[in-house]
Amino acid sequence: MATLHANVETVRRRIGSAAGRAGRSVGEVRLIAVTKGQPSEVVRLAHAAGLRDFGENRMDEAVGKQVELSDLVDIRWHMIGHIQSRKAAAAVGAFALVHSVDRPKIGILLDRCAGERGLRQSVLLECNVSGEASKDGWDARTGADRPRLLAGLRAAMQLARLDVHGLMTMAPWTSDEEELRRVFRGLRSLRDELASGGLNGLPELSMGMTDDFEVAIEEGATMVRIGRALFGERPA
Q1: Residue 198 has what pLDDT?
Q2: Domains within the chain, CATH numbers bracketed
Q3: Which terminus of the chain, N or C, has fewer Cβ atoms within 10 Å?
């Protein structure tokens, strides 16, 4: 518990320093604790350490933890992992924010399920800025078909039961800071391009993880998804 408290304070301090370097307020950046592979007891300890936003990658694991931790009524759950079509219905209403709407089909399924249940679902649209084949998301790499990309994102934003709050991306695994900045700037530029075309109301940029979150904050991230820096390596 003492180690977790220390890690939380260290990460918060690093977030504050990165925000300061960019002339931003630390309050502009939300820390999302990534608890993939961590048992519910660890999430409970993290909650006691002051964390409230928790990100999960797998639907079944997330739902199980939500049941086990249902007494922690102020937890905000985030789905940050790839969503299979057959599990899209389970995401609706279960998460404060779904970061990983990575293709039109998932947006349409979430919208349909939300409508059937009389709900609205808050989401982010995931974009593949790096161009890596291993990454999910709308194709937003340099040189991609920009009109097609913008049309697809606009269509997703017009789905009746989805509240689109912004964009999400994952940077490549690299120590090349300039490459990281290129990816993060690319997402920010895409958000600004959408806004300049009349699609305002996209305040959130979910980008940055343990190895690159400070660079992401300097480039405009409003949400950073941190696992290892808080909890260490995931249990086997």
Answers
A1: 67
A2: 2-231 (3.20.20.10)
A3: C
